[in-house]
Amino acid sequence: MLEPTPTSGARTVLSLAIVAALAAFACGPAPGGGVETAGAEPLDLEGDHEHYLQSVEGARLELVEPGADGAWREIRGAGRVVRLTAPPERIASRTLATDEILLEIAEPERIVLLSPFAGDPQFSASADEAQRLGSVGGFSTEEILAASPDLVFAAGFNTQESLAQLEAAGVPVVVLLDHEDLAAIERNIRIVGFAIGRDREAERLVASMRLRLEEARGRAGSRTEGLRVVHWSGGVVLGGRTVFDDALRYLGAVNVAAENGLEGWPRISAEQVVIWDPDVIFTDSYVAGDDVPGALDGTRAARLGNLESLDGRDMAAISHHVASMVERLADALVRASERIEAAGGRNPVTAAE
Q1: H or E segment to which residue 161 belongs
Q2: In 115-133, which positions are buried (b, 16+ CB within 10 angstroms) versus exposed (e)?
Q3: Is 301 helix (H, G, I), strand (E, B) or coil?
Q4: Is pLDDT at 219 greater than 50 in this prediction?
Q5: Are 82 and 172 in contact (CB under 8 A)?
Q6: What is the distance between the alpha carbons of residues 126 and 110, in angstroms, rounded to a whole number?
Q7: Domains, the chain, ranges and CATH?
Q8: What's the CA gap between 334 and 347, in Å, rounded?
Q9: DSSP characters for 190-255?
Q10: What is the value of pTM for the model shown?
Q11: Are 326 and 293 in contact (CB under 8 A)?
Q12: Is 109 exposed, middle or buried (0-12, 13-18, 19+ CB in 10 A)?
């Protein structure tokens, strides 16, 4: 854990639902290795956040170097053993998270296919790089097979059918299950680096992400401590076990939804948000204008002008780009704290001292 670690609040979550949708994948012959199942069925979560939350329990992967039977490396876990006989030279990604990580640490010529979301600036913080690379593809099995990858990165929210198609084709597939917090994001960066032989580049990326997080928390200081916060947009709230919740705890603020026992991204009414009466309410750019005008006017946040919008790309990020979300979140919370003080209020932590 990175101290009070952050986690990816998917869609207000169009985010995680979208990131999950990035997962209709499949691919082709496997020059560099093969995949074995280890007695477990591939996960079939299909956007259900409760199933996703259950799936990440104990979902860490074991990295083995050298692998068994002379293999170059092995990655074990998620019900399978992925054995790579050599560093992969034709890499495909079926998730936005691994799209963005690969674009940062892999040699461009080794990336043969990225998910459709990689080049979409509405969702991807790496859209420009993906478009320049020219390897953005679709989700069809045929298209992925045609790219002849020797390694595919997938996620636990990919469908059982997609995973089965890849495995039947003999393609090594590394399935990343856990995207709940910053610690998981760090692990995923390292797993991608390990699987493609770019370990040092992965460590540098983790170090850069950590530095940005620490600087954001330093800018926030004690001003964000104890602020009561809700992210509610399109009728969906971000609860515990989301990157957003971890980010708030990392910055010393309180996620009111998590405080009330909610996890993932359940739907709640505007009336419930008004009852909670938070200091700050966040929405995101995916669903701007989707909520009923004036629905939150009765809240302290609305009266103080503490209704903030976060960039949808930040909210979708479950890669190193999550640092941008934490930075913007910290800055927004500082502004909110200043408005509270200007209105004669005090940070709850300060008031208690």
Answers
A1: helix 160-168
A2: bbbbbbeebbbbbebbbeb
A3: helix
A4: yes
A5: yes
A6: 17
A7: 14-209 (3.40.50.1980), 221-352 (3.40.50.1980)
A8: 11
A9: HHHHHHHT-HHHHHHHHHHHHHHHHHHHHHHTTTTTT-EEEEEETTEE--BSSHHHHHHHHTT-EE
A10: 0.81
A11: no
A12: exposed
Among 237, 233, 231, CA closest to 290: 233
Nearest-angstrom CA–CA distance, 256 and 262:
9
Short-list 277, 171, 187, CA closest to 229: 277
Q: Is 261 exposed, middle or buried (0-12, 13-18, 19+ CB in 10 A)?
A: exposed
4-43 tens-digit pLDDT: 333 333 333 344 444 333 332 222 233 344 434 333 333 3
Q: Which residue has the higher pLDDT, 57 or 215?
A: 215
Amino acid at 78: A
CA distance 78 to 163: 12
Q: What is the rounded CA–CA span in Å between residue 302 and residue 33?
A: 56
Contacts of 303 (CB under 8 A, 6+ apart): none
Tell me, letter by letter, the H, E, C secondary structure of 238-293. CCECCHHHHHHHHCCCEEHHHHCCCECCCECCHHHHHHHCCCEEEEEHHHCCCCCC
Radius of gyration in angstroms for the set of CA atoms belonging to the chain, rounded to a whole number:
21
Distances (CA, A) of 75 to 1, 14, 32, 36: 21, 30, 14, 11
